[in-house]
Amino acid sequence: MMRFVASAVPFARLTAYWNLGYEGYFVPVNFSEAVLAQHVRAGSIDLERSVVLVEGDALLGFSLLGVRGERGWIGGFGVAPAHRGHGLAQTLIEEQLAIARQAGLARVQLEVMCQNWAKKVYARAGFATTRDLVMLTATLPAAAAATSFSSRDGFAADHARLHASAPACWQRELASLDADPSGDVIAVADAILLTGRVGGALRIRDAAALADADALLAALAAHHPGEPVTIVNEPEGSPIHRALIALGAVEKLGQHEMHLEL
Q: How many domains, the chain?
């Protein structure tokens, strides 16, 4: 078994390793080189501190580490199908955490799907669940008069203020959102959201509210009446979560957000 930092692997091969590591996963995670490159940018992935385990040219497993200040994030973790079930995942996470410690990181976080066996691997490595995140899909009601969009100029300040008591998950932090400057901002009182499109489908890229979020969703419906909308990694029990459930939203999948203090 040989260990490489991910930056030493040609990007086309790294993409192939990514797809192999996620083969048979609970949801499709098959990336093109362009999509993986965007994921690396948006997730602040440091390929110099990400690890790939191989035998010859054959993948054993990989772990991608995002870095922001003294915080790290596991932004991809996979073991080749032929090597699953033999303890390799534990070796892989320990290799990644050793690199994180050498880099001087104080904390590493990740998300893992609730039904994923890997959560046991992370727990054995010392990670603890801090909250549950859900993906919701709803159909927006028909609405008449549309409110105006807000400027993206003030979004950063609103994002910081409204997420102060309930921090955004890694992929919804400003560093991730700024990697794609597209999308529209809607702000209503003490609530704000950023929209986008994924494969043509409407996505709430981020949303935060201090209290009642119904007015925020009503404003979104005014611009997109009757359209399906999805939000990913929304904290369970948040004002946004409660308002979407009241709207008839369906929970598509759940994840545990886990942290480890190094």
A: 2
- 105 and 59 both lie in a single domain: yes
Q: How much is the pTM?
A: 0.94
Q: Are residues 91 and 142 in the same domain?
A: no
Q: Cβ of 164: how many Cβ atoms within 10 Å?
A: 10
pLDDT tens track for 148-169: 778 788 899 999 999 998 899 9
C-alpha pair distances (Å), 171 with each of 115, 167, 206: 21, 11, 9
Measured CA to CA in angstroms, residue 40 lies from 114, 158, 257 at distances of: 24, 26, 20
CATH code of the domain containing 76 = 3.40.630.30
Question: Which residues, other chains included, contact 108 with Cβ-Cβ below 8 Å and sequence gap of 6+?
Answer: 65, 71, 72, 73, 74, 97, 100, 127, 259, 260, 262
Residue 246 and residue 161 share a domain: yes
What is residue 146's predicted lDDT score, i.e. its pLDDT?
66
The whole domain housing 210 covers 134-256
The share of the chain scoring above pLDDT 70, in percent, equals 98
Q: What's the pLDDT score for residue 144?
A: 63
